[in-house]
Amino acid sequence: MSIVVSIILTVQMLCAIGMIGLILVQHGKGADMGAAFGSGSSGSLFGASGSANFLSRTTAILATVFFVCTLALAYFGNVRPTGGNSVLESAATQAPVAAQPAQNPASDASGAAQIPAK
């Protein structure tokens, strides 16, 4: 089980790094308007609009894989072990300590000793 969780965590981290890189490479919505007035070049490696489609689709695919890995890690994190490796189960098998009420010799039946004096 630990190997599966390690693989899923590795895939999730690679997707996160890939998404960060792709999001930083993409142009904003106002980048095309600046290129129209001559302050930048509108041509790119994929053409004028080809890069937006390619980068957007790749980002969406990586986001989907990241979301699926997150759900899988949440599922494997909540799977209960069958061998009784839980903290609560191991505490229940130890000898229970009997709780004793605190004795206050100064208190009377009315509980006046519990009121602080001024």
Description:
The protein is mainly alpha-helical and 118 residues long. It has a domain at 1-13 and 49-78. It has four helices and no strands. It has helices at 2-25, 31-36, 50-77, 87-93.
Oligomer classification: single chain
Structural class: mainly alpha
Q: DSSP strand (E) fraction? A: under 5%
Helix content: 55-70%
> Overall 3D geometry?
elongated
Q: Main beta sheet: strand number and arrangement?
A: none
Radius of gyration: 31 Å
Record field, number of beta strands: 0
Series of H and E elements: HHHH
Helical run tally: 4
Mean pLDDT: 75
Poorly predicted runs: none
> How far from one another are the termini?
62 Å
Summarize the structure.
The chain is an all-alpha fold. The protein is 55% helix and 0% strand. It is elongated.
Q: What are the key terms here?
A:
single chain; mainly alpha; 118 residues; 4 helices; 55% helix; elongated
What is the secondary structure topology, with strand pairs?
Layout (H helix, E strand, L loop, with lengths): L1 H24 L5 H6 L13 H28 L9 H7 L25
Helix pairs in contact: 1-3
